[in-house]
Amino acid sequence: MLVERLPLGALETNCWLASYGAGQSLCVIDPAGDADTLLAAIGDRHVAAIVLTRGHFDHLGAATALVERTGAPLMVHRLDAEAITDPWANGGLGFGFEYEAPEPDRILEDGDVVEAGELVLDVLHTPGHTPGGICLYAPALPGDADAPHLFSGDTLFARSVGRTDFAGGDGRALARSIREKLSVLPCETRVHPGHGPDTSIGYEARVNPFWPRG
């Protein structure tokens, strides 16, 4: 599996280009902004899916340009779908950014699968930061030496978690999401968050003060 990180937009949100290998179709996760930079990084590669891990403005600033250029389907969880087309609901106008995305082509639910070529990503609904926040999990395949990968959006960061003091935030829901959906993943799972550096499930289990104990 190939994973490319692009910190984009005013908040340097991590946009991820994920594929099963060289020459394979891409899944673009959180096209946060700086459309020219993102499109240049993609080049002539085929984009099979565009996924928003939540409906906040800093995760979708380049979504319109990416959809128009590639024609790839835009996907988001049902509970954040309305927010992505409304600069008030996605929080952008509160920070001076009038960002919005097109209507989604596919509504995601917990347990769904997103495919890009041979890449298969499991949708984990992890509310708390937003009602429709999701993570995308790529389990290690039989015989594959690579570790599993988790694209955690703003659910889990290195040594921290997403804020819950914005509209729609819920601290108890976030704690439950981490306990029920993330803490059960293999320790070697590589975590690619929405902001900041990569980490792993095992490392966060040891050092993250928000990790469930006992």
Give your account of this protein's structure.
The chain has about 210 residues and is α/β, with parallel strands linked by helices. It has a single domain, classed as Metallo-beta-lactamase, Chain A (4-Layer Sandwich), CATH 3.60.15.10. The protein contains 4 helices and 14 strands. About 45% of the residues are buried.
- Largest sheet strand order: 1-2-3-4-5-6
Cα end-to-end separation: 33 Å
Known CATH architecture: 4-Layer Sandwich
Cα-atom radius of gyration: 16 Å
Structural class: alpha/beta
Proportion of β residues? Answer: 25-35%
Low-confidence stretches: none
Fold-level CATH name = Metallo-beta-lactamase, Chain A
Order of helices and strands: EEEHEHEEEEEEEEHEEH
The tally of domains stands at 1
Mean pLDDT: 92
- Strand element count: 14
CATH class label:
Alpha Beta
Shape: globular
How much helical structure, as a percent, in the residues?
Answer: 10-25%
Largest sheet: 6 strands, mixed
List the helices and strands and how they pair.
Layout: E1 2-8, E2 13-19, E3 26-29, H1 35-42, E4 47-51, H2 63-70, E5 74-77, E6 106-108, E7 113-116, E8 119-125, E9 134-138, E10 149-153, E11 156-157, E12 160-161, H3 171-182, E13 190-193, E14 199-200, H4 201-207
Defining key terms:
single chain; 214 residues; alpha/beta; Metallo-beta-lactamase, Chain A; six-stranded mixed β-sheet; 4 helices; 14 strands; 16% helix
